[in-house]
Design a protein that fits this description.
This protein is mostly helical. The chain is 65% helix and 0% strand. Helix 4 crosses helix 7. The chain is elongated, with a radius of gyration of 16 Å. The chain starts with a helix and ends in a 17-residue tail after the last helix.
């Protein structure tokens, strides 16, 4: 139970500070665990590594910012914590199934911003492990 409480603290920190530079070692230090132990325990509890969880959170936030339509892809990239536009675009495409510029264009043309945010968040949740379809927006 103690480890689960510590893992929740790590997950909450990732959710709160996703746009800041975070690495597994820094997260592990914050809960007095080794990086390896944290990674194993986190994956056992949540089904993915802390790094993967962080990347997913960043992409989810990027999707929300791109749906708003008032920021460029480059601005969104840096706002969610990526240091490289290329890395951001590659990871975004892996999780979402299309490049961020295409996602933003489709979100603007489908009127995705008119849906309640809770519905949009559920419908657009990134797919992990390269399972995203090659084409098609996740919005109905």
């Amino acid at each position: 139970m103690r480890d689960l409480a510590l893992l929740r603290r790590v997950r909450d920190r990732i959710d709160r500070e996703h746009a800041h530079p975070l690495d597994v070692e820094a997260l592990a230090r914050g809960v007095h665990m080794s990086a390896g132990h944290l990674s194993r325990q986190f994956k056992a509890a949540y089904g993915e590594s802390p790094y993967s969880y962080l990347m997913t959170r960043r992409i989810e936030r990027a999707m929300a910012l791109l749906r708003r339509g008032d920021r460029t892809v480059t601005d969104v990239c840096f706002a969610v914590g990526y240091q490289s536009l290329g890395t951001f675009s590659t990871r975004f495409t892996e999780l979402v199934g299309m490049p961020p510029s295409e996602y933003a264009r489709r979100a603007r043309t489908t009127g995705a911003c008119e849906l309640p945010s809770c519905v949009t968040k559920q419908a657009t949740r990134p797919v992990r492990n390269r399972e995203a379809p090659a084409v098609g927006l996740h919005l109905a």
